[in-house]
Design goal:
Blueprint lengths: L4 H5 L16 H16 L3 H23 L2 H18 L9 H22 L31 H20 L2 H12 L4 H8 L3 H19 L4
Helix pairs in contact: 3-4, 3-5, 4-5, 5-8, 7-9, 8-9
């Protein structure tokens, strides 16, 4: 199926983002989005190719941060778009497409996590685990100007490893909200929609998740 090729062939696919015209009005963009959604619901293959091209990098990044496994994230990205293709006709528009895709991706990650647990292969990442040099880890945003020199780069790399590892030790419900809110930048309402929980629950889990991260990273960052 052609719409899966960008996901299957490379997880770091470049997003094709069209620059908005100066003459585009909010109403025109809304109308274009509505037309795009109607084409998706109608099963238009070209429109779904575009959705995969535009969003596969976002979905992969989310799944990598949830799993810390590049191969697993690629597999789950493909499963996410397969499920989206099967379900798009029933998409009600109660959330934007990105949030809807994130909801599917999180559910795919949860299902895989349960699958591993049933087979007693669930594991906790250690602070001593080898770094994955080919990936962009969660803490890449922590790099600063001191990272321009070799010593600073080494320090930044160690901080990345520590934060990645600490994030993986969080219980899944807390890790999900921390990644969606603090890494992906979703609003509380969007996180709630993606996880199908209340905003109050999002805030509670986020508070506990952040507190646990601070505790685990005390003296490291």
């Amino acid at each position: 199926m052609s719409f899966l090729e960008p996901v299957a062939l490379r997880a770091d696919v470049e997003m094709e983002v069209a620059a908005p015209s100066a003459h585009d009005s909010p109403s025109a963009r809304t109308s274009a989005e509505a037309q795009f959604l109607e084409l998706l619901r109608a099963g238009d293959a070209e429109s779904f190719d575009r959705l995969v091209s535009d969003r596969s990098q976002d979905v992969y990044a989310l799944l990598y941060r949830l799993t810390q496994d590049a191969e697993e994230a690629r597999d789950l990205t493909q499963e996410t778009f397969l499920q989206a293709f099967r379900s798009i006709a029933h998409f009600r528009g109660d959330a934007d497409l990105r949030t809807w895709l994130y909801r599917i991706a999180v559910n795919q990650a949860r299902n895989r996590w349960r699958w591993w647990r049933r087979r007693r292969r669930d594991a906790t990442v250690s602070l001593d685990a080898p770094a994955r040099d080919s990936e962009q880890p969660l803490s890449a945003r922590l790099k600063d100007e001191r990272g321009r020199d070799p010593e600073g780069e080494t320090l930044a790399h160690e901080r990345e490893r520590a934060l990645d590892a600490a994030l993986q030790t969080l219980a899944r419900p807390y890790r999900e909200v921390v990644v969606l809110r603090d890494v992906e930048g979703l609003s509380y309402e969007e996180v709630a929609a993606a996880l199908e929980i209340s905003v109050g629950t999002v805030k509670s889990r986020l508070s506990r998740g952040r507190a646990e991260l601070r505790r685990r990273l005390e003296g490291v960052l």
